[in-house]
Amino acid sequence: MQFTQVIAPTAPTINRTSINRDSIRNDIFEIISNDQDVKEQIQSLRENSKPEDIVNILQDVVMKRIEQRLIALEQKTNSIEQQLENIQFNANSRERISRQKNLRFIGMKEQADIVKSITEGAAKIGIQLKNEDIEYCHPLGQKKKEQQSPQPVIAAFLSRFKLKSLLSKRKEFRQATGISIFEDVTRYDKWLLDQMRDSLEDEDRKYVFTRGGRVCYKTEDQGIVFINSYDDIQRYLYG
User: Is residue 86 a contact partner of residue 79, using CB atoms and an 8 Å limit?
Assistant: First the structure.
């Protein structure tokens, strides 16, 4: 079996426009030597002129050049930030796809046989779920000594139909077992979900939910929209 070598993307190279003492000195020298307008202004000064007069002539020209360099640097920075945002978006999308077969179970007290807890809970609400329908399952993380609540459990399903059946009846599942079911979202999407809910009043948090592993927000004028970044939160909540 041959494996294709995967090369990690290299970080963009930042060709920074240096702004330091030497570059400013070179600018001044170049301006005095080649800028005809500046040369004429300096030559027109009388012998009793003060050093401040020359400084005033050079100040605007030098500042303009520095501002141009800063603008160029800001444009490069914005371009790199956009590239990094695109990389993060694509990586998060790929991770989201890999998690679509998973469900998270919160409040499962009996974890000695997780598969049994899930299948028996499903049977209580009329869903026939076999052991072989679950590809794998395990608690998430390590339980801390002072932690009293049970560890969240992740379970991967081979049947998308069975997974959706559990999701559609998760309210009944919770009533029958005391266990809550959630979609398995990426860490970034979970952060967006928490940020969105924390920004809303309690009565409006029901309008933020996940669907297919993506964070959704039900708006008044546009219906259901996807939240893909913090900028989306700012746009939909604050305009």
Answer: no
Q: How far is CA 94 from CA 8, 10, 47, 87, 213, in A?
A: 15, 19, 72, 11, 11
**3-class SS shares of the chain: helix, strand, coil, % to 5:** 55, 15, 30
Q: Considering the domain boundaries, does residue 2 fall inside one?
A: no
Task: Please tell me the distance from the alpha carbon of residue 34 to that of residue 24, in angstroms, as a whole number.
Answer: 15
CA distance 118 to 103: 11
pTM over 0.70: no
Span 66-105, pLDDT tens digits:
888 889 989 999 999 989 989 988 999 999 999 999 999 9
Containing structural domain, residue 42: 29-96
d(CA 90, CA 87): 5
Q: Are residues 109 and 173 in the same domain?
A: yes
Pairing of strands 208-211, 180-183: unpaired
Residue 239 has pLDDT above 80, yes or no: no
Give the number of other Cβ atoms within 10 Å of residue 133's Cβ: 19
pLDDT in tens, 142-171: 777 777 788 999 999 999 999 999 999 999
Judge if 107 and 149 occupy the same domain: yes
Helix or strand run (H / E) with residue 230: helix 230-238
- Does the residue 18 lie in any domain? no
